[in-house]
Amino acid sequence: MSALLEVAGLAKHFPVRRGAFGLVSGHVRAVDGVDFELRAGETLAIVGESGCGKSTVGRLVLRLIEPSAGQVRFEGEDLLALSDGAMRARRQRMQVIFQDPYASLNPRMTVGAMLGEPLMLHGLAKNEAARKARVGELLDLVGLRPDHARRYPHEFSGGQRQRLAIARALAVEPKLIVADEPVSALDVSIQAQVINLMRSLQQRFGLAYIFISHDLAVVKHIADRIAVMYLGKIVETATTDELFRNPRHPYTRALLAAVPLPDPTAARERTLLEGDIPSAMNPPSGCRFHTRCTFAREACKRDEPALADDGQAHATACPYWPEFPPPAVLAEAANRDADRIRLTRLQAAFVNNQQREAS
Amino acid sequence: MSVLLELRQLAVSFATDDGTVRAVDGIDLSLERGRTLGLVGESGCGKSVTSLAVMGLLPPENSMVKGEVRFEGRDLLTLGADTLRDMRGARLAMIFQEPMTSLNPAYTVGDQIIEAIQRHQGLSAADARARAIEMLRTVRISSPEKRIDDYPHKLSGGMRQRAMIAMALACGPELLIADEPTTALDVTIQAQILDLMRGLRRDTGTAIILITHDLGVVAEMADDVAVMYAGQIVERAPVRALFARPEHPYTVGLLGSIPRLDEKRERLPSIEGRVPDMSRPPDGCRFAARCPFVELACRAETPPLVEVAPGHLTRCRRAPLAQVLP
Prior knowledge:
The complex is a heterodimer of chains A (359) and B (326).
Chain A lengths: L4 E14 L4 E16 L4 E5 L6 H8 L7 E6 L2 E2 L5 H7 L3 E4 L13 H11 L6 H14 L16 H13 L5 E5 L7 H18 L2 E6 L2 H7 L2 E6 L2 E7 H6 L4 H9 L39 H5 L5 E2 L5 E2 L21 H21 L1
Parallel strand pairs in A: 3-8, 3-9, 6-7, 7-8
Antiparallel strand pairs in A: 1-2, 1-4, 4-5, 9-10, 10-12, 11-12
Helix pairs in contact in A: 3-4, 5-6
Chain B lengths: L2 E14 L2 E14 L3 E5 L6 H9 L7 E9 L2 E2 L5 H7 L4 E4 L13 H13 L3 H14 L5 H4 L9 H13 L5 E5 L7 H18 L2 E6 L2 H7 L2 E6 L2 E7 H6 L4 H9 L48 E4 L2 E3 L12
Parallel strand pairs in B: 3-8, 3-9, 6-7, 7-8
Antiparallel strand pairs in B: 1-2, 1-4, 4-5, 9-10, 10-12, 11-12
């Protein structure tokens, strides 16, 4: 099957202006040569810490900001060659959800007006009755009630607002949704509701997601493939299961080791990364990670490693990974002791509760 | 072990346009010297308000605090403002999620630490400066002799958090309240800060109340855990017991709803519904509306905290939960 989205050599260098005359004194290399593909119905997660460029990649793909270089092909068509008008029409097929549902919904529009607007714009509802019916259907899809259409965004909780943002994205029947930290601002119990909703909508409509997140545990539950970014570049990419089982890049390994596990009995590998994330305005030479890498050698300061695929869709931007000691494998919590069984059975009641609420 | 802090029937209410909101509703807790208590719960459960009440930092204009906050046997709620101010910083200190809430942007990092040291320990300017540099070194800020004269905005997020910890610990407090200290940080920086806090706790024996929504952080740091829901403690237990054998349905649901690195499930058992409106809390158990094990009697009256195993308390009348399983 061919790719829904192909991204090649994507880059964005933001100029930094200084002084009274606004002279360009340098560039922040927010995204600096990124390649990936996404198939229909697939979820690619882009993970990394502040300033790694993950959100910028999402915006570049949708042309919400213009790339400095590179190619973005969506359904075989070069998006960067399109006029503004043609691009607007394509946006019917690619939508976005942001982290902060408080900031992304117009406070002065009722939910019905907000969901109805794109239907009219893209000619998806012939008349008032069809529009109303579709709005009700969209609200139902995201677990809200049709009569919520009369309300304003401030009358909803954070989790419900994120459901509204999802409903608005779904209104135009997109093929791709870029979700930028969609659950990061939500409480954990609400987070799980939204993750479950996104997964079931994906199965139902064959949606592809670019899921941008800093949270590896969330990503593990929603992604088919993961790309790990550091300072504007992808340092490792693999299927989700493979990446968690065999992390190769020292940064991926450190990232996994740093996530606190909700298990006080877990024995963890403690490889603390020293220092802060360097500035993207002046990234380190050679391998950008060398200033914090436990395995760094002389050559790393000089040579910039390529993202090399091993032939099995696992690519790593570190030529030395086979020489490193294997990472401590995270034991899957397969521990079937009595406590675990009891807890799993108790939690099953919450899943049944969900299904009861849904029906 | 001696008890350092004891809360008895602590209650906090706020006057709002929608009437009185009972943010904290009868908290009983005790913390021994040198121990770390994790206080967990979701937004609005009252965990931060509880800590601000302990510190005496709630605005007196619109908040009402009742009950007792016994610190080394003295009820802090009965102390005068001056006495309390002398104790804050010296005996009890607090750090926040956002360091800029406690660091003043108009003064250098050094000025602020030195001020705290001089105020509480009466050292000379030179000695206080030397002690401040020493503290910055303790929190592993590199070249502290230079950093001490930096303004907060010059430091990265992780560095600011370290500077705030240095300021909080400068006078060797017996109790440190840390309110979401790593929530705003990247995960590799969070790991550094947690490691630092573990080291300082070992070296100084400071007792810590760690307020967080992150059960992973609690599992790594706490000796004991108290879970809050809608202004009440619903479960309290030693950390291992809480994670292995939770006895309150809310804790069970919360543990289920976190996506975990060491597990993959088709569907996360989320907790449906939302927290009750605290200006009109429901009768009976506050979790009843979202609980899969609810019975008619649960809605009738507020269940008390009962001990189901040594040191393990739950506010659920159906506990032990083994009996609700088919």
